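User: I'm designing a mutation panel for YkgJ family cysteine cluster protein and want to avoid disrupting the core. Could you give me a predicted structure to guide residue selection? Please restate the sequence first so the numbering is unambiguous.

Assistant: Good idea. Sequence first, for numbering, then the predicted structure tokens:
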Amino acid sequence: MECRTGCAACCIAISISSPIPGMEDGKPAGVRCVQLTEDNRCSIFGQPDRPAVCSGLQASADMCGSTDQEAFDILAWLEQETNPRILE
């Protein structure tokens, strides 16, 4: 499966604890990554300063669902289930 162009759910819904250019402390869940362009494309895609967690994400039906909103819902749920800071 390939990413849906313009979805960006994984760039917004999940937290990223490693540094991102322009977000040196990473980003919390639900916050838009500063590297997203207006059309929701990653401006550092394929570049060495892209965080490993981002490069390691692979689109799948289980993670992305069949719509952008479904992807946001799934990823928000996964974030809540796996990130103890969200549960505090």
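For picking mutation sites, this is relevant: Residues 68-82 form the longest helix (15 residues). The two ends are 34 Å apart (CA to CA).
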